[in-house]
Design goal:
It is built from nine helices and ten strands. The chain is α/β, with parallel strands linked by helices. It folds into two domains: 34-115, Alpha-Beta Plaits, CATH 3.30.70.3270; 124-255, 3-Layer(aba) Sandwich (Rossmann fold). The strands form three sheets. Strands 7-6-8-9-10 form a five-stranded parallel β-sheet. A three-stranded antiparallel β-sheet has the order 2-3-5. A two-stranded antiparallel sheet has the order 1-4. It binds iron/sulfur cluster.
Length: 259
């Protein structure tokens, strides 16, 4: 018994500092929130779009735009177009699909909350309902397991999302929300619809990863059923391929008003 207590004491506190006592520890090659130079225009968009495998680059009103909902953060656009840079900012999630699109010259909305049209806070009803407890059912709808594994990590002691009242449930009947990963393959469409229908009302839908948001690299595949996620109208979009655990934890805590 004494040995067990001593071992526990020696191990110390293993949960990471983020978000209560500091910033997350990110790998050197981490690619976070993109920044686009204010003068990036049509010619730059053409060059960057030619390198992009997911059609995430476009041009709106003569300005280069990058859709984080389609982006797989491969960095190819930045390698051919120096006007695109990927910062180390892990805060990528949005409550509205349109807020995932970054335009040339946009400032980081989290650092400039008074100068942005991005919706930085969730609807008040969501915070009221889930601020103390958010039970989620995860559905891998044809995912490659990358998003699933990096979401799984949040349940380990290193991230411990349970300390914020966020847990994964074995049944959708006990869940407040559904977290969907994968592009929704045709084979998974019915299972996903049934799982969604089994949740009690009200509930939230979370699209986790480029595939769940836009189809990602499978967007053109005839074997996917994107209309299912369109019908659900997600309350939270978490970009990435896969989203880093810090991005997902930041997103979930914002959703329940804890950040
Ligand atoms: S980093 Fe994103 S926008 Fe750039 S080429 Fe890759 S997928 Fe396209």
């Amino acid at each position: 018994m004494f040995k067990a207590i001593l071992a526990r004491f020696k191990q110390g506190y293993k949960t990471g500092k983020f978000p209560l006592k500091g910033e997350p520890k990110l790998p050197d090659n981490f690619m976070g929130r993109p920044e686009i130079a204010a003068d990036a225009g049509e010619a730059d968009a053409k060059i960057a779009a030619s390198a992009c495998p997911t059609g995430a680059i476009s041009c709106e009103n003569g300005k280069l735009c990058l859709d984080m909902g389609k982006c797989i953060f491969c960095g190819k656009c930045a390698s051919v177009c120096p006007k695109i840079k990927f910062t180390k900012d892990w805060r990528l999630a949005a409550f509205r699909r349109e807020d995932l699109i970054i335009h040339a010259g946009d400032k980081n909305p989290f650092d400039n909350p008074n100068e942005t049209t991005v919706q930085l806070t969730p609807p008040k009803e969501i915070v009221k309902l889930y601020k103390n407890s958010l039970k989620l059912r995860e559905v891998s709808a044809g995912g490659c397991a990358a998003c699933e594994l990096d979401f799984n990590v949040l349940g380990t002691l290193a991230w411990d999302m349970g300390r914020f009242g966020i847990n994964v449930m074995a049944s959708p009947r006990h869940a407040d929300g559904i977290l969907v990963t994968g592009p929704v393959s045709k084979n998974m469409a019915l299972a996903l619809e049934k799982t969604h229908a089994a949740m009690p009302e009200p509930n939230v839908t979370i699209a986790c990863g480029a595939c769940a948001i836009s189809g990602g690299i499978y967007a053109e595949s005839p074997e996917t059923a994107p209309e299912v996620m369109e019908k659900f109208k997600p309350d939270l979009y978490i970009p990435g391929c896969p989203p880093h655990p810090a991005t997902t934890l930041d997103a979930l805590l914002r959703l329940i008003g804890k950040l």
